[in-house]
Amino acid sequence: MTEYTVTAIRYQMGDDLSAEGQKQAAIEFVAGLKIGQQVLLAAEPENPVDDKAVAVYINFERIGYIATEQCDEVQQYLDEHRQGRGVVERTDGHLTFFISIPDSTEKPVVIESQKRLLPESPLDDNVKLPYKREESKLQLLATKLLDMDVNEQSILPIIDMAELYLPLAKLSICHEDGYWRDKIFKKLTGIRKLITKFGLSEEDVSRLDGIVHQLRKVVGDMHRSSDHWSERVFENHLNSLRNNKIACGHLYDKYCDAYLDKKPFSEADQRKMVVERTRLLSWLESMKWSELRRWGSELII
Q: Which end of the chain has fewer CB within 10 Å, C or N?
């Protein structure tokens, strides 16, 4: 049996913690792991540091990464969504734990790398923006929801998973996310029509009704040009980079160096920002599956 090392746990423990606080939280987290506990794996081809990175999740929260030197091997055992499963085997009693992959004894199937991307970005590769933690969680939840068979045993886990998915449903405008969102809505609507087969309690039926109602509103909002995507996609990314100096500060600095004459986003020349914003807006408006509302002439920094 091959063991794979999970590292970088301290960096997932919260941006509001000091370095020492993150370390202590990671030690406590590793100490609380149970042998045999299941983990989920997800490739991150858009990762700006390593496009072969494989993230490790527990309860759909990213808690670390497969050690860099083992990523090539682990990638071979991921499915068509670039995802997989593992099991906790042991810990080092400190900041690291080790997993096995149940199917890794079988002959690996090499899958052509797939990237979850917006249309080709006008940004240079050296300032490639990463997807946020919530967007990676969105991808993982959406694919698991769609892959689950509907039966008496799975119906409650599906509802639980849908509740986790709902707050993220309007987070992304990627083609795949739009496709998954519509498919999940149809799946949950279909389940609601067959609800008497599953013997759910009134409380669980009410939960499902609430999810379907809210997701119907999200799907409608995403297709109405008058309401569509009021969030400022690019600016939100820059703000997340600016506010997370520990994990993403170097990317924010690269952007400022390359496009804003080495000035911080909030201090850049307004004429320069108008040029950049116009260029990026043109790019965003070219995306399939979206009719982005124009953001107006004002700059919100």
A: N
Q: Strands (DSSP E) along the chain, which ranges?
A: 4-7, 38-43, 54-58, 61-66, 83-91, 97-100
CATH top class, domain 4-105: alpha beta
CB 12 within 8 A of CB 59: no
Residue type, 67: A
The DSSP output letter for 196 is: G
Could you tell me the residue ranges of all domains in the chain?
4-105, 133-223
Q: Are 75 and 52 in contact (CB under 8 A)?
A: yes
C-alpha separations of 60 from 13, 42, 144, 185, 215 in Å:
14, 10, 10, 20, 20
**Segment 48-81, tens digit of pLDDT:** 778 899 999 999 999 999 999 999 999 999 988 8
CB atoms within 10 A of CB 240: 19
What three-state secondary structure class fits 41? strand
CB 130 within 8 A of CB 236: no
In the chain, the amino acid numbered 69 is E
Per-residue tokens: 95: 């900041």
For residue 87, the model assigns a pLDDT of 96
What's the chain's average pLDDT? 81
- CA dist 162 and 175 (Å) reads 20
Identify any residues that bridge with 58 across adjacent strands, giving them in sequence order: 61
At residue 291, the pLDDT reads: 39
Helix runs in 120-227, H state only: 133-147, 155-165, 175-193, 202-223
Distance separating alpha carbons of residues 257 and 259, to the nearest angstrom: 6
Q: Cα separation of 208 and 246, whole Å? A: 39
Residues 6+ apart with CB under 8 A from 154: 148
